[in-house]
Amino acid sequence: MKRTLLSVISVALVVAACGTTARAIGEPCVVEGVTAGECESGAICGKDPDDVLACLKICDYGNTADAGKTDASAAPSCSADQECNGVSGTTIKACRDKKK
Fold it and tell me: What is the pTM (predicted TM-score) of this model?
């Protein structure tokens, strides 16, 4: 019984140490199209111009009410060196560096 309890506590500590902190814009992510828990608020996991999954700044929420937004005007715009393009499998668009 003590061994089982110790094992459960050990696993819980490892999980807690790893954490579930949302990643910042530009950091690598794992599941494309996910907003909650994967990336910080206002970001979505999508492919960057190099086809690598990274947290990208949302620039258009499309037809969803994602993150409490109800229309595209509520989303921030991209910088001058970026463009707003769709994220695969979603109606959400995200800022990506313009291809040169």
Answer: 0.67
